[in-house]
Amino acid sequence: MKKMLLLCGCLAVLTISCAKDKPAEPTPPKLIELKYNAAVEEGGIRIQFAAVTSDSRCPTGTQCSWAGNAEIVLELTGDGNQAAILNTNSQYQQSYRYNEYNITLKELKPHPEAGQQIDVNSYVAVLTIEK
């Protein structure tokens, strides 16, 4: 009986110590919609949607030989200041690493429509931020 109790005690200690060694679950990316010229603070960094440098995405209602691309600039402030240039087209840079964070442009709204000009103030960058 004493051996059985000792064995159960050892198993309990082993189980507890193994549970402590498990790596922490990764936190899911945080989705942020950031309006043009607006800023957000996340984890000690400030992200500002500073500019849309180009938008050649294929407008809705037209046929294009390629999907096009929109390029934006994010001003990052925290441990130093940096500018991140991100694109909607996967052929170009869509993510930027700043400090411990990976910032990715998922979408730029609104999508162009044939015959309509987009007012720069109506742009919204959809970003994910993950540590």
UniProtKB/TrEMBL annotation:
List keywords of the entry alphabetically.
Signal
> At the top level of its lineage, which domain of life is listed?
Bacteria
Q: Which residues form the signal peptide?
A: 1-19
- Protein name from the UniProt record: Lipoprotein
